[in-house]
Amino acid sequence: MNIGFDAKRAYHNETGLGHYSRTLIKSLAAFYPYNNYFLYNPKAGSAYQLSTKNVFEIKPKTIFNKFFSAAWRINGVKKGLIQNKIDLYHGLSHEIPFGLQSTGIKSVVTIHDLIHRRHPEQYNAIDVKIYDRKFRYACNHADRVIAISQQTKTDIINFYKIPAEKITVCYQSCDVIFSETVNEAEKKRVRAIHGLPDRYFLYVGSIIERKNLLAICKAMHLAGDDMGIPLAVIGKGGKYKAVVKAYIKQFGLEKKIIFLSEDNAAAKLNYNDFPAIYQSAVAMIYPSFFEGFGIPVLEALWSRLPVITSNVSCLPEAGGNAAYYVNPNLPQEIADGMRKIYFDKAIAADMIEKGWQHAHLFTQQKCAEAVMEVYKSLFKTASQID
User: Fold this and answer.
1) What are phi and psi of 331, to 5 degrees?
2) Are residues 279 and 305 in the same domain?
3) pTM for the model
4) Does residue 185 share a domain with residue 309?
């Protein structure tokens, strides 16, 4: 079978959507090598190399399509899909080309979340309308919809009135590098590069209001100096980051909050350093108000790192019985969790073991199998997908 993908995020996104796309493509290519995978990349240039013997990058060829790459991605790409004899097209992040159904090509779309509907105040009003139009169109016109959590499936049903039987929950996995044990010498090297102490709490994610970094900073303040370790922050932000920094300055927390790369500008943050950074931490703190899945939680569990996260949204799906759950509105609960994990080694060890077991529900093979089953459901006989 020839399978096409919207590969914009796979090649150009450094955060959750990009990680999801790259991990799924690599997993499918590895576990189902008899298929051909065509990655439709609207723009040249990328730090990511995905092509293999059965994975092919396809870019716009004409000057017009190169210049108007966005238009090629949502409409002009259909001609290429026909030329490449694509059997099935998978929109990996909320979108499919307009009018794709007229080509006779089967289609699947992955919906990660409908946060623009739940929290429209955190978006530009025009963006909300654009996202809603694209997402709704994809859900209505794709042959199948993949939701990355039960929470997202529920939102698709409630907001877009899509029949439940059209939607399949397929959990995502993460890069296998997080499951590989990093030796002490490598952890020490990475800590030295980024100016990190031997132990610290960790936050990974965009620095936006929904992710709730301010609550972690408040928890650091409430926890006092007994633990004597800082919070390391990995993520980018704008206006909300300025609010967080104002709080840090107001309460004299500058030495307790480390913004990686920013506080050590000479050290560029390398993705390959992430496992060492995770595995040197005491706990991942992720008290988000709402997520589609919460990939840093899974990365932490694979890294044998205790997790403190929210008791709302899909985060209990990601953390299972392994995480320490808090009300994201209550910094004191976050502080209590941090102190318990830091001072009670038995609690931390139990969380690590449960987290490792829970993470195995989200292996790359299991996640690829779930998506492949969705693909197979679109064809009458198994021979049509070989």
Assistant:
1) -55, -30
2) yes
3) 0.90
4) yes
Residues 75 and 211 in one domain: no
Domain that holds residue 205: 176-362
Cα separation, 201 vs 348, in Å, equals 13
What span, in angstroms and rounded, lies between the C-alpha atoms of 53 and 130?
Answer: 37
- Count CA within 13 A, CB hemisphere, residue 54: 16
Per-residue pLDDT of the chain (386 residues; tens, 9 = 90+): 999 999 999 999 888 899 999 999 999 999 999 999 999 999 887 778 898 999 999 999 888 888 889 899 999 999 999 999 999 999 999 999 999 999 999 999 999 999 999 989 888 899 999 999 999 999 999 999 999 999 999 999 999 999 999 999 999 999 999 999 999 999 999 999 999 999 999 999 999 999 999 999 999 999 988 899 999 999 989 899 999 999 999 999 999 999 996 755 446 788 899 999 999 999 999 999 999 899 999 999 999 999 999 999 999 999 999 999 999 999 999 999 999 999 999 999 999 999 999 999 999 999 999 999 999 999 975 555 55
List, in order, residues 6 or more apart from 272 with CB less than 8 Å away: 177
Same domain? For 229 and 329 the reply is: yes
Number of domains in the chain: 2
Q: Which of 28, 6, 158 is nearest to 95 (CA)?
A: 6
Rounded Cα distance between 248 and 42, Å, is 41
